[in-house]
Backbone:
C-alpha cells in the first residue's frame, strides 16, 4: 500500500506543478487579452527540451540539478496529501529543512556554470529566501505552538474537527502574514527577482539547455506545489471541507475526495496569486527585503505574541 | 493544428514537441526586431503557437535573423547559433540576409548569410509583418514534419566549410571550432 | 536682427570669411583652415557652446576634404527658447587631400572626440592632438578608407565577399 | 592504564618532540603523530569507566584528584581526535615554515593541557590546566610573528586572563567558605549554601567560561585569533578549545549545582537559564549576519564558530532532557564540521599560495575535487541539511524550544540557520564555483596527508547524520549522569510520542528518489562537455579575468543591515583599552627621573597628612 503511495504522490505533485504553470500562462494571457497557449504547454515544452542535446559544465552542474529535483520530490512526499502523509518522521522541522535542498541544489549547479548572471540570480534567490523566511518562520512557530505539536499531519487532523486555523483568531494574523509572502514563496511577479528574464537573463537558468531546462521547470513547478500545499495544509485545513465527507473517513473514496478537495483549494489560492502577479511590476531586491521585513513580519509577530499570551 | 492528435505524439514526440514549443532567442540582429514585440503581445499573440522569446540561446531552439547582418553582428550571430542546443532552426527575415538586399554593395554588411550559418526558412518582405512571422512558423512546422528543417545537421556535417567561410571573413576567429576534435 | 548683428561682428573680426545664410535660422561661414580654430573658440565665447556635429565632404575633383562644424547655443536656464537658441552656425574649412591632416578641437569642444575618430577611420584624416584615434566601427581591413570617393565598394564586395564559396 | 599515565604520556610527548626536533625534523614529525595516536587510543580505553582517584603530588602535599566519567570522556575523545587529525594535517601544511619544533611542542602541549582540564577532579588542578591552556594558546595564535598576529594574541590573552582571574576569585571564595576544592564534596556542600552566594559563584564561573566560549559580549577575540592562527591550530581552536567553556558550564550547572538548585535560581520571570538562553540567541543572530559580510574565508568560519556556540548554550541552558542532549550532540557535531571546514580553508590557502580573500578565488572545483566534497559536506553539516549530523542536534534543540513554549528563541535560532545558509553558500561559491582565474590554472590537489583528515571528518559528518544512534547513546548516558531522565534512543534517532525522528527513513527516501531522478537524467541525450569560456555573454566574447560575481556577494542585504551590525562591543573594548593606556601614560609621566621631584612628592604628601590630622584628627 505504501509503495503505491510513494509512487502516486510525487506523480500527482509533478502533474499539479505542470498544471499550475500551464494555468499560470493561460490566465496571464487571458488577463492580457490574448488566447495564450493550451494548458498542457509546459508538458509540450518539457518533451521538446528532453529531446535536445545540450552542454554540460562539469559534474556538479548535473548533480546539483538532480539533487534539487530529488529534494523537491522528497518534500512532496513529506507533505500531507489529503489525509495521507507518506512519511511523517520529524514533522514540520524536517519539511522546513528538506525545503532547503531544492534551492541549494539549483544554487550549486548554476554556480558551477561559471556565468555571473547565474551567480547574481542565486545571491538574489538566497536574499529573497532570507527575506521571506523571517515572517514564514514566525508563522510556522505560531502554528506549532498553538497546536503544541511539530507534526504537520497532526495539525491537519486537529483542523478537521476544530475548524480551519484561518478562522481561529490568533492564527488569522499568521494566515494573513503567510498570504502576504505567498508570491515570494511561489516566485511570481512582484518577487520574480531571482529568475528575472530581462535583467539577469533568467538568473540561475542562464546556462541550462535541453534536459537541464526540463528539470529546472519541473523543480519550479514542484516548488509552487510545495508552497501552496504548505499554506493550504496549515491554514485551510487541507483535504477536508467542513467535515462534509466525514462518513467516508478512511475509505479509498474518502482519501481520493480529500486529495481532490486539497487540490481545488490550492488552485483557488493559486488563482489569487496569478491575479497579484498580473497586477505588479517586479520589485528590486532592496524593495522586496524592505517590504518582507515590515508588513508580513508585523502580522506574523503580532500572531505569535497573541498566541504566546493566550496559549 | 494537429497538436491534440495523441497518435502523432506517441509515434514521434520529439518532432511534435519541437513543432509546438518553439522558444525564440530574443536577440535583435537587425531592423526587423521591431516586428517581434507586436507579434508576441496581445494583438497577434505568438504564444498560442507555443512561440515564446527566452533570455539565453541555451534555452532556445528557434533563431530569428531579423534584418541586415553587419560584419560585427555576424560574429555575435555565429556565437549565439553555436550556443544553442542541438535540434535548432533559423529563419531569415527580409531580403537583406538572402542576398544583401538594399545593402548589396555595402562595404560592411554580409551578403549571403547562408554561407556562414545554415538557414532553414526565409520570409520575404522588407520587414515582414507579424502575420508573415506566423506563416513562417507554420511553414517551419511542415518542414519539421517532413524532416527537411535539417539546418543543424548540415552545420554539423559541413562544419569545416562553414568554419572556413567564417575565417575568410574575420581572419583569425576568437573561439575554438565547435565540432573540432569530436 | 540677431543674425545681422552677429554677421557684422564676425566680418569685423575675420575679414577673409565668406558669410552667407541660406535659411532663416542658420549661418554658413567659409573660412581658411588656419582661422577655423580661432573662429570656433570665438563663437564658443559668444555663447554657442554646443558642438552639434563634425562631418567631412570629399571634393575629389579639386582634391580637397571639407570639414564642416555645426554649432548652436544651449537653452538658457529659464528655458525661454529665444531667437538666439534657434540659430545654427556652420563653419566650413577646406584641407588638402594628400597629407589629409588637421588639428583636433578636443580642448575647445570635448565632445568632438568620437566625431574626429569616425572621420579618421572612414576618411583617413589624421587629427593632431587626438588622444586615441583607434578604430571605432569597422571590423574588416580595407586598402583605402571606405568613405573616400575613390574607394570602389562594388569592386571590394566582389573580390572580398565574392570569392567566398557557398556551402554545398 | 591509569589516568596519570595518560597525562604523563601526553605532556611527556610534548616535551620529547621539542628535543627530538633538535635532532631531526622527520623524527619529530613521526614521534608527534605516534604520540597523539597513542593518546587517542589510550583515551578510548576509558569508555564508560567512572574513576575518582586522588593522586599525591610531590611538593607541599596538595592532593591532586583525577576523575573520569562519561562527560569528561566525551570531551576528551573530541580533544584527542581533532588533535590527532590536526597533527597529521600539519605534517605537510607546515612543511616549509620555520620554528617547527616550537609549533609541534605547543600544539601537543595545548592538547595535553586541554585533556588535563577535562580529567581533573578538583578546581585547583582544573585552574592550573586552564592557565596552561590559555597561555600556550597565546603562543600559537601569535605563531606567525607579524604584528597582526601578535595583536590578535594579545587581545586573546588579555580577555582570557580576565576570565581566569574571575575564575580564581570564585575558586578562592569557594575554598574559604567550604574548605575543600573537591568537586564531589563541593556538590554536596553547595546545596546548603544560601541562594545568593551560589548565584554569585555561578555568575563568576560563567563569565570566565563565556569568555573562552566566545559568547556575545566576549566574542571579539575569536575572529582576530582565527584570521591570524595557522590552519591546523585554528581547527583545534574552534573545534575543541573554545568548547572547554561548555565543559566548564556542564561542570558547574549540572555536576556541582545540580538541576533542582539551578531551577531555584529564579527571581520572578528572569532566571539564570533564561538569561543565558537569550545571550545564546543574540550570539546566533549577530554572528550569522556578521559572517555574511566578511570576505576572508577564515573570518567567515570564525564568526560561524561564534554563532554555533549560541545553539549549544540554547540547548544546554534550556535544561530539559532533550535540550541538553541536543546541545551536547551539537557540541560534537560542531567540533566535527568546523574542524573539517578549517582544514578545507587551510587546503585552499596551501594550494593557492596563501590566498584567503574570497574575492580573488573561484572555479577551484575543477582542480581540487576532494577538498570540494569536504567543503560541501562541511557546509551542509553547518547548515543542518537532513542527511548530516548538524540536522539531528538542531532538530532536538528546536523541538524542545517549541514544545516548551518559547517560540521566539526558536525563531532566532532558525534565523541563524538561514544566515548560515547564506554565508555557507558564499564560502562554497566564491572558492569553488564560477570562473577559474588564470593565475590558479596550475593549482593542484593537496597531498594525501592533508586530504585524510578532510575525508575522515566528512565520513563522520554523514555517518552521524544517518545513524545518530551511535553518538546519542553516549550523550544519553551523559544526560542520566547529570540528573535528567534518559531519552528513548534507537540507532536512527529519538523516539518519543510527541514526534519521533527516524534519520534512516529520511536517508532511504532521499537516496531512492535521488537514484531514480539521476537515472531519469541520464536517460536524456548525452550532453557535450565544454570549458568555462564557452558561456552565454549576449553574443560577446567572455572577458577572461573579469567574468565572475564574487565581490560583496550579498550587497543589497549589506546596505540594509550594515548600520545595525557595527560591533558595538568591540568598539567599547577598544575605547576601554585606549582609556587605560592614557591613564597608564599619565602615571608614567609622574616618574620624571629627577630625585628632586620624588622628594617633593614625599614632602607634599606628608604636608597633606598633617593637614588631615590637624583638621579631623583621624589617626
Residues:
Amino acid at each position: 500500500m505504501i509503495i503505491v503511495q510513494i509512487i502516486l504522490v510525487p506523480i500527482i505533485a509533478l502533474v499539479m506543478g505542470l498544471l499550475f504553470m500551464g494555468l499560470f500562462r493561460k490566465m496571464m494571457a487571458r488577463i492580457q487579452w490574448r488566447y495564450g497557449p493550451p494548458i498542457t504547454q509546459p508538458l509540450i515544452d518539457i518533451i521538446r527540451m528532453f529531446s535536445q542535446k545540450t552542454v554540460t559544465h562539469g559534474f556538479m552542474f548535473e548533480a546539483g540539478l538532480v539533487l534539487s529535483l530529488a529534494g523537491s520530490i522528497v518534500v512532496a512526499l513529506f507533505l500531507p496529501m489529503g489525509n495521507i502523509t507518506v512519511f511523517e518522521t520529524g514533522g514540520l522541522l524536517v519539511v522546513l529543512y528538506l525545503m532547503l535542498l531544492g534551492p541549494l541544489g539549483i544554487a550549486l549547479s548554476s554556480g558551477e556554470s561559471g556565468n555571473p548572471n547565474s551567480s547574481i540570480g542565486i545571491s538574489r534567490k538566497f536574499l529573497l529566501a532570507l527575506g521571506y523566511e523571517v515572517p514564514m518562520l514566525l508563522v510556522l512557530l505560531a502554528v506549532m505552538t498553538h497546536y503544541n505539536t511539530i507534526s504537520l499531519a497532526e495539525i491537519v487532523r486537529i483542523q478537521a474537527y476544530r475548524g480551519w486555523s484561518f478562522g481561529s483568531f490568533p492564527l488569522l494574523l499568521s494566515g494573513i502574514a503567510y498570504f502576504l509572502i505567498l508570491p515570494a514563496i511561489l516566485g511570481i511577479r512582484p518577487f520574480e527577482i531571482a529568475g528575472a528574464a530581462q535583467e539577469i537573463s533568467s538568473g540561475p537558468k542562464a546556462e541550462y539547455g535541453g534536459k537541464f531546462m526540463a528539470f529546472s521547470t519541473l523543480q519550479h513547478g514542484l516548488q509552487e506545489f510545495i508552497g501552496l500545499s504548505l499554506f493550504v495544509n496549515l491554514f485551510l485545513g487541507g483535504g477536508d471541507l467542513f467535515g462534509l465527507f466525514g462518513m467516508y473517513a478512511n475509505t479509498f473514496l474518502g482519501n481520493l475526495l480529500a486529495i481532490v478537495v486539497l487540490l481545488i483549494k490550492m488552485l483557488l489560492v493559486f488563482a489569487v496569486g496569478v491575479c497579484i502577479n498580473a497586477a505588479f511590476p517586479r520589485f528590486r531586491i532592496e524593495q522586496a527585503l524592505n517590504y518582507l521585513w515590515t508588513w508580513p513580519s508585523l502580522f506574523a509577530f503580532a500572531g505569535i505574541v497573541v498566541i504566546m499570551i493566550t496559549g | 493544428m494537429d497538436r491534440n492528435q495523441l497518435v502523432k505524439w506517441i509515434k514521434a514526440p520529439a518532432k511534435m514537441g519541437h513543432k509546438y514549443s518553439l522558444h525564440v532567442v530574443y536577440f535583435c540582429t537587425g531592423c526587423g526586431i521591431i516586428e517581434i514585440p507586436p507579434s508576441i503581445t496581445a494583438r497577434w499573440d505568438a504564444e498560442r503557437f507555443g512561440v515564446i522569446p527566452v533570455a539565453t540561446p541555451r534555452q532556445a531552439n528557434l533563431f530569428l535573423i531579423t534584418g541586415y547582418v553587419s560584419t560585427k553582428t555576424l560574429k555575435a550571430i555565429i556565437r549565439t547559433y553555436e550556443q544553442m542546443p542541438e535540434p535548432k532552426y533559423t529563419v531569415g527575415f527580409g531580403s537583406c540576409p538572402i542576398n544583401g538586399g538594399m545593402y548589396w554593395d555595402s562595404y560592411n554588411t554580409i551578403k549571403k548569410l547562408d554561407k556562414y550559418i545554415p538557414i532553414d526558412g526565409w520570409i520575404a518582405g522588407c520587414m515582414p509583418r507579424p502575420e508573415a512571422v506566423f506563416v513562417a512558423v507554420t511553414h517551419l512546422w511542415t518542414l519539421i514534419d517532413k524532416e527537411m528543417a535539417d539546418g543543424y545537421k548540415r552545420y554539423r556535417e559541413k562544419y569545416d566549410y562553414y568554419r572556413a567561410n567564417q575565417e575568410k571573413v574575420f581572419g583569425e576567429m576568437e573561439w575554438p571550432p565547435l565540432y573540432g576534435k569530436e | 536682427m540677431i543674425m545681422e548683428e552677429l554677421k557684422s561682428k564676425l566680418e569685423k573680426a575675420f575679414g577673409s570669411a565668406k558669410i552667407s545664410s541660406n535659411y532663416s535660422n542658420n549661418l554658413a561661414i567659409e573660412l581658411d583652415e588656419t582661422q577655423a580654430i580661432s573662429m570656433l573658440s570665438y563663437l564658443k565665447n559668444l555663447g554657442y557652446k554646443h558642438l552639434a556635429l563634425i562631418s567631412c565632404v570629399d571634393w575629389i575633383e579639386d582634391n580637397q576634404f571639407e570639414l564642416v562644424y555645426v554649432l548652436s547655443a544651449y537653452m538658457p536656464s529659464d528655458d525661454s527658447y529665444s531667437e538666439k537658441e534657434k540659430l545654427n552656425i556652420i563653419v566650413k574649412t577646406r584641407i588638402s587631400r594628400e597629407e589629409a591632416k588637421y588639428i583636433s578641437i578636443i580642448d575647445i569642444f570635448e565632445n568632438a572626440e568620437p566625431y574626429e575618430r569616425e572621420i579618421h577611420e572612414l576618411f583617413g584624416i589624421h587629427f593632431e592632438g587626438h588622444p586615441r584615434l583607434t578604430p571605432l566601427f569597422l571590423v574588416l581591413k580595407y586598402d583605402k578608407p571606405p568613405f573616400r570617393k575613390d574607394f570602389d565598394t562594388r569592386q571590394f564586395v566582389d573580390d572580398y565577399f565574392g570569392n567566398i564559396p557557398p556551402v554545398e | 592504564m591509569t589516568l596519570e599515565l595518560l597525562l604523563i604520556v601526553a605532556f611527556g610527548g610534548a616535551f620529547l618532540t621539542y628535543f627530538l626536533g633538535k635532532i631531526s625534523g622527520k623524527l619529530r614529525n613521526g614521534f608527534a603523530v605516534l604520540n597523539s595516536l597513542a593518546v587517542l587510543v589510550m583515551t578510548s580505553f576509558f569508555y564508560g569507566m567512572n574513576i575518582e582517584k586522588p593522586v599525591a603530588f610531590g611538593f607541599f602535599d596538595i592532593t591532586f584528584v583525577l576523575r573520569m566519567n562519561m562527560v569528561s570522556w566525551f570531551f576528551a575523545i573530541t580533544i584527542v581526535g581533532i588533535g590527532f587529525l590536526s597533527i597529521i594535517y600539519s605534517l605537510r601544511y607546515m612543511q616549509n615554515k620555520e620554528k617547527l619544533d616550537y609549533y609541534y611542542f605547543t600544539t601537543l602541549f595545548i592538547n595535553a593541557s586541554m585533556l588535563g582540564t577535562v580529567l581533573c577532579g578538583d578546581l585547583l588542578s582544573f585552574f592550573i590546566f586552564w592557565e596552561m591552556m590559555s597561555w600556550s594558546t597565546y603562543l600559537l595564535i601569535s605563531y606567525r610573528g607579524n604584528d597582526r598576529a601578535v595583536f590578535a594574541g594579545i587581545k586573546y590573552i588579555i580577555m582570557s586572563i580576565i576570565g581566569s582571574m574571575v575564575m580564581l576569585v570564585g575558586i578562592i571564595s569557594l575554598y574559604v567558605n567550604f574548605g575543600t576544592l573537591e568537586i564531589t564534596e563541593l556538590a554536596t556542600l553547595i546545596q546548603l549554601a544560601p541562594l545568593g552566594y551560589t548565584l554569585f559563584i555561578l555568575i563568576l564561573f560563567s563569565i570566565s567560561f563565556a569568555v573562552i566560549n566566545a559568547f556575545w559580549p566576549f566574542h571579539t577575540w575569536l575572529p582576530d585569533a582565527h584570521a591570524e592562527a595557522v590552519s591546523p591550530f585554528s581547527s583545534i581552536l574552534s573545534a575543541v578549545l573554545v568548547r572547554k567553556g561548555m565543559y566548564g558550564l556542564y561542570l558547574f550547572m549540572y555536576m556541582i549545582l545540580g538541576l533542582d538548585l539551578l531551577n531555584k535560581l529564579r527571581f520572578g520571570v528572569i532566571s539564570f537559564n533564561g538569561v543565558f538562553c537569550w545571550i545564546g540567541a543574540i550570539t546566533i543572530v549577530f554572528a550569522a549576519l556578521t559572517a555574511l559580510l566578511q570576505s576572508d574565508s577564515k573570518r567567515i568560519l570564525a564568526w560561524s564558530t561564534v554563532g554555533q556556540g549560541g545553539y549549544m548554550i540554547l540547548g544546554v541552558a534550556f535544561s530539559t532532557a532533550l535540550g541538553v542532549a541536543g546541545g551536547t550532540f551539537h557540541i560534537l557535531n560542531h567540533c566535527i564540521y568546523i574542524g573539517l571546514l578549517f582544514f578545507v580553508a587551510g587546503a585552499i590557502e596551501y594550494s593557492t599560495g596563501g590566498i584567503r580573500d574570497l574575492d580573488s578565488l573561484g572555479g577551484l572545483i575543477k582542480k581540487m575535487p576532494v577538498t570540494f566534497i569536504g567543503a560541501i559536506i562541511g557546509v551542509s553539516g553547518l547548515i543542518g541539511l537532513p542527511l548530516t549530523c548538524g540536522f539531528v542536534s538542531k532538530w532536538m534543540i528546536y523541538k524542545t524550544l517549541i514544545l516548551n513554549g518559547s517560540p521566539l528563541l526558536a525563531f532566532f535560532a532558525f534565523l541563524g540557520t538561514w544566515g548560515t545558509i547564506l554565508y555557507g553558500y558564499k564560502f562554497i561559491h566564491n572558492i569553488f564555483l564560477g570562473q577559474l582565474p588564470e593565475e590558479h590554472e596550475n593549482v593542484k590537489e593537496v597531498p594525501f596527508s592533508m586530504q585524510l583528515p578532510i575525508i575522515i571528518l566528512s565520513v563522520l559528518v554523514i555517518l552521524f547524520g544517518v545513524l545518530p544512534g551511535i553518538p546519542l547513546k553516549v550523550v544519553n548516558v551523559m544526560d542520566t549522569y547529570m540528573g535528567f531522565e534518559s531519552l528513548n534512543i534507537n540507532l536512527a534517532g529519538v523516539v518519543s510520542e510527541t514526534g519521533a525522528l527516524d534519520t534512516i527513513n529520511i536517508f532511504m527516501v532521499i537516496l531512492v528518489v535521488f537514484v531514480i531522478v539521476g537515472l531519469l537524467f541520464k536517460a536524456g541525450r548525452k550532453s557535450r562537455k565544454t570549458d568555462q569560456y564557452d558561456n552565454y555573454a549576449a553574443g560577446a566574447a567572455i572577458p577572461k579575468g573579469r567574468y565572475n560575481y564574487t565581490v560583496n556577494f550579498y550587497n543589497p542585504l549589506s546596505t540594509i543591515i550594515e548600520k545595525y551590525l557595527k560591533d558595538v562591543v568591540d568598539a567599547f573594548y577598544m575605547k576601554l583599552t585606549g582609556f587605560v593606556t592614557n591613564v597608564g601614560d599619565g602615571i608614567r609621566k609622574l616618574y620624571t627621573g629627577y630625585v628632586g621631584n620624588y622628594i617633593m612628592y614625599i614632602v607634599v604628601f606628608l604636608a597633606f597628612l598633617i593637614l588631615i590630622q590637624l583638621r579631623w584628627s583621624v589617626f
